Structure formats: structure tokens, C-alpha cells
Amino acid sequence: MKDDSASYFESQEFAELLHNYEEMISEGNSVYFDSSDLVNLAEYYSINGEPDKSDAVIEYGLNLHPCNSDILISKAGLLLMRGQNAEARVISESINDIDNQELAYLRGELEFADGKIDLAEHWFNIALNMSDNDPGMLNDIIVKYMDGRRYDLCQKWLDRALIISPDSRNFIELQADLYFDTGQTEAAIEWYNHLLDEFAYDTYYWEQLGRIWYEREDYTQAMECFEYIEAIDPEYKPARMMEASCRLQMEQWEEAYLIYKELLEDDPSSSTLLYYCGRCLFELEDYENALPYLLKTYEEMDEEATRDMYVELYLLLASSAYRLGNKEDALAWLNEGLDLDPNDTELLNLAAKLISGNKNDISEKSENNINDL
Length: 373
What we know:
Layout: H1 5-9, H2 12-27, H3 35-47, H4 51-64, H5 69-81, H6 85-94, H7 101-113, H8 117-130, H9 135-147, H10 151-164, H11 169-181, H12 185-198, H13 203-215, H14 219-232, H15 237-249, H16 253-266, H17 271-283, H18 287-300, H19 307-323, H20 327-340, H21 345-354, H22 364-371
Helix pairs in contact: 3-4, 3-5, 4-5, 5-6, 5-7, 6-7, 7-8, 9-10, 9-11, 10-11, 11-12, 12-13, 13-14, 14-15, 15-16, 16-17, 17-18, 18-19, 19-20, 20-21, 21-22
């Protein structure tokens, strides 16, 4: 799902606002800003992972506009995002502005966060009625339910939105995303294609389609989607990575290797890219050039790597060393893998080739497993 607020934050208008505010901070001055501008600045810092700056904007805003409803609502919303529900509720209940639709929406958010769905629906309905069925308010409610994985309620509100605005690109996109998130892939494909009929250069829709085809293991169609993205935006690296994944699945080892190698130039310490470069060369039986990539992968693996990832790497290292005639290194990597998974069939098959005359080099448990093959 795309972030609709990003378009405003990328605008020249907001760039000037941000510049003026940050210039004020750097010079230690005090400048007047509208409450709505300060709310936007606080949201910008929040979504960019700068909560201290976001809080500073709110406090500055309350100094300029004491008890301003919009700023207090923004403060409560930011607290709610951080899981500080009780503090957010105290602020919301302190605001005496019964005709404020954003306050009604905030109260709906609070009830939803506390699992009180009926009350959340009550406040969301009030907020929508106050807004005179404003599409923006409908969007906020739908996205809130989608983020909370209440897809049933999300669909209910989307049905309502599409009756009010049947041609709305935003609501059509949200419906496509909902189908995607709930695994209704046939419907998702239909709705994304409908969007592409009119917005053929929107890479988001191509990417969503590509992911659907990839999950369906239709790598040819998936690759076509990612190639479209690359044609539209050559700098978009995730599409290039996904194209390489498609080629890997299709066993187009050389083509995949060239893409991974290209991506590795921009991120030379990526264990993922190093691994796939080595894997592709291994499949091409270029063991001599595969081995340095695999050794570098081992050096760069971080603590988030799973046991299965290590077992797979040890197998490739052992197999490469074995094929290059380096039996000692092959045995060393093999034992590393068998220590993690003594029952891995591929490791045991390789061990069976190496065990002859070297039984002391393989653990007793692994030898027993080999004999059971």
C-alpha cells in the first residue's frame, strides 16, 4: 500500500515550509506558523523516524497556539502510534471541540487500539458524517482497518467508499491491495490490470502484479512485470533484484549472476548478493570463481542468518572445495554443516563420497546417518 502523505511531503510547498522551520531552529529564532503547518511538520518527522523532532514541533506549536485542538489531536495521535494509549486518551478527553471530525476519528482510533470495535465503528461513523462523506476521511478509516488486519471491516468500508466514489483511483487501488493482502489473487490481478489500463507507468501496480505471479511460480510473467518497472525507472533496485530471483528460479544462472554482480557493485558487503553470485557460479560449475564469493558470504553473514541458511552455505562451500580437489577443506565445511543438521540428505550424500578411508573425519552420529542412506 502506498503512502499517500508522501506526495505532499515531496512537494515544493512542503519543502519551503520545512526549510523555514529548520532555519528557525538553527538560528534560535521564533517564527509564526499556522497550526496546520506545524501538524504536518510533526507528522513528517514522525514517519521519518525522528520522534524527538516531532515532539519538539508539537511543543512549539502549543506555545504558539495554546490548547489548539488540531495540535493536541496530533500529539495524541503520535502517542497512540507509540503505543501510549492511556496518555493519548487523556489528551483526547481534554479537548472540548465536539464538532471536530478529526477528534471523532482519533476517538475511533483509540477504541480500535483497545479492541473495542463497536465503539470504534461508532466514532468512525460520526467522523464520516461530520466530514459529509469526505473521501479523505473514508480513506483514513479503511487504511486504519487494513493496517490492523481487520479485513472484514476494511471491505465493509470499501464497499461504502466505492458506492460514493466508484471511479476513485484511490479506492480502486485500496480494493486491489485488499484482494492482494487476503490472497484473492485472481481479483487482485483484475483490479491492478484495470488500474494499469489508465496508469500504465505506475510502477507500484506492476510490482504488485509481479509479486503475485512470482508467488504463483509463473516466473516468466513475473519477470515481464519487473522488466517493465526497470524500463520505467532504471534506478529502482528492488525490481532488478526480483528479476534476478525470477531468472534464478528459471535456472538462468548466467543471466541471474550478471544481475547480482551488478547489484553487488553498489553493496559489496551484502551477504545475500554474495551468496547468490556464488550460487549461480556454482550451478554453472565454475567452482573456482564461486568459492571466493561463498567464502566472503561466510565472512559477512550476520546473527540474523538462520540455521538453514548456514547449512546451505556449508554445503556449497564443501561441494566447491570437493570439486576443486581440496578434500581437507571440503571435510571441514562438511562437518560444520553436519554439526548444525546431522540429518541433511545433501550433506550426508557428500559425506558418503568423502568418508572412504577417512572415517575419523566424520562424526559418529553423522556416520550412522550415512550408513542408513
